[in-house]
Request: fold
Amino acid sequence: MQKKIKKVIIPAAGWGTRFLPLTKVVHKELIPVLNKPIIHFLVEEAVASGIEEIILVISPRKLEILKYFNVNSELEHQLKKSGKIEFLHKVKETNSLAKISIAIQNEQLGLGHAIFSAADLIDNEPFGVILGDDLIKSKVPALKQLMEVYYRTGNSVLGVQSIPKKDISKYGVMNPKNQLDALKNEFAIKGAVEKPKPEEAPSDKAILGRYIFTPELMPLLRTLKPGVGNEINVVDAFEPLMKMGQEIIAFTFKGTRYDLGSMEGFVKANIDYALEDELINETILNHIKTKY
Ligand code: UTP
Reply:
């Protein structure tokens, strides 16, 4: 019987340079898909996966993100006074989505460092990680899919999908050791490489923003030196973790993933969600059909 996964870390302290100049004033994790910021979807995914506490890793200049989850009494009072009850409900929903805690990453030294910044809030327990700019639209929440693999095996789990060769150098890429299931959805890994050149990539399976880690990961992160990109990369902890006798499983999750840290991902997500929104889908579809 595995220990229950109660907490998820959402690293959200990065600079968001790929989305400049917007991210000069709008934090990447607040970029909208229709009328909600990405972070709203990510918190919903965690809650729908059965997570009890969400730890947001932010930098001191990104405290604004917290405002989204805090009560705004003035706004609520105004909406009540003017009888805009439907909007009042929408606002109130954001105050009660989940138990949210904060960890501060003072310097943006990389994803491994961001996860380690939350170490004091994680006891000796397994935990999940959801990247603050990766939205995954799926029937079963992506994190829950990974959690099921963890509960079945007791191993750390990386959420992966196949990526075209030309794009592979944007990602951490898993190096497969052996296939664990008939459907080729699960592989034990022998390693992972951060942002490889296409010709050096060990597979086409990129790690895309969802992880489950066993408790042993945190102390290993403390020991890491900067690697590719001069950052402290979480993939560099995989080898020492495996040397401790642990397996790491790369699991191909089902769902459409949008990189909201990039313009293409942002536009694709907004088109897809708009075309599924019954209030606006007809208008948007007509617009596309007549204009293009
Ligand atoms: P990215 O590498 O995509 O974020 O990290 P970034 O550094 O903000 O992006 P660019 O390349 O400058 O545009 C994935 C997630 O990890 C967080 C980011 O906020 C993002 O949600 N992150 C990254 C941290 O919290 N701290 C870091 O040091 C790096």
Summary: Residues 263-292 form one domain. The pocket of uridine 5'-triphosphate is lined by residues 11-18, 28, 57, 105, 108-111, 113-114, 131-133, 261 (CB under 6 Å). Residues 4 and 126 are 7 Å apart (CA to CA). The chain has two domains: 7-261, 263-292.
